[in-house]
Design brief:
The protein is an all-alpha fold. The protein contains 13 helices and no strands. Helix 2 crosses helix 3. The longest helix is centred in the last third of the chain and has 25 residues.
């Protein structure tokens, strides 16, 4: 029998035999165990042999369900992304609340499964769940005057910010405060060599709660500035049509 391709596996169009006894090991169980391993120990710890040992089967048993590790990791990404997200598009600017919702959900996914960021690179086969995330964000932008390429570029810029911050604070429960706290510990040994950096890290509003919010605000701050840029672009395009005619 011909080996299923990655695309066939992702889209569920691969042909598998239906006769005979039901196997005790399933593809879904293999993928779930692989995700659990990658979540706890990272992608570098994942191998077909390690996975087989955890499942209590031989490595050859895994190959009856999956051609190899490349197909396994593609299916892991698809499973980690789950289904197309339901975005919050309430408020006077549905495109803005929708993109904000998309960015926050993307960040949460990266925190749950940091290894996903390692696999979402380069030209590669994509499945319906992954494309569903892009579809959801583009749907939020459907009613504003951006071209198709501009909408896609907006998602690239927004995801770039989310991904960059997620890579700095990798791991569930890790916050920007933890990151800056580690920097502050290093700066204690630096004396007065970096005065501007020390001032930025140590600046206080005098209110502990406000300081805590500010030190965990990089994600939201960046999202809002990107959305401000899109809003400015839209306002610039709408201004000529809505402006009053020049005086005679």
């Amino acid at each position: 029998m011909a080996t299923s391709t990655v695309l066939e596996l992702l889209w569920g169009t691969d042909r598998r035999p239906t006769r005979g006894p039901k196997p005790t090991l399933s593809r879904a169980a293999i993928i779930a165990e692989a995700i659990a391993l990658a979540d706890t120990e990272g992608l570098a710890a994942l191998s077909m042999q390690r996975l087989a040992d955890r499942l209590g089967y031989t490595k050859m048993s895994l190959y009856r369900h999956l051609p190899g590790k490349a197909e396994l990791t593609a299916l892991m990404v698809e499973a980690a992304l789950e289904k197309q997200p339901a975005l919050d598009t309430s408020g006077p600017e549905p495109w803005r609340t929708g993109l904000r919702s998309w960015a926050l959900l993307t960040f949460q996914c990266y925190q749950r499964h940091p290894w996903v960021m390692e696999l979402l690179v380069g030209a590669r086969p994509t499945g319906p769940n992954e494309l569903g995330w892009t579809e959801a964000a583009l749907a939020a932008l459907a009613d504003i005057p951006l071209t198709g390429p501009e909408r896609l570029d907006t998602l690239v810029v927004l995801n770039g910010h989310v991904r960059s911050l997620a890579q700095q604070v990798v791991g569930p429960g890790t916050t920007e405060k933890d990151f800056t706290g580690a920097m502050a510990a290093a700066l204690e040994l630096a004396g007065d060599r970096f005065p501007h950096l020390i001032a930025a890290v140590s600046e206080s509003t005098g209110e502990p709660e406000a300081d805590a919010r500010q030190r965990d605000a990089a994600l939201g701050f960046g999202i809002e500035r990107i959305l401000d840029g899109v809003a400015a672009l839209l306002n610039g395009r709408e201004a000529p049509a809505n402006s009053a005619p020049p005086p005679p």
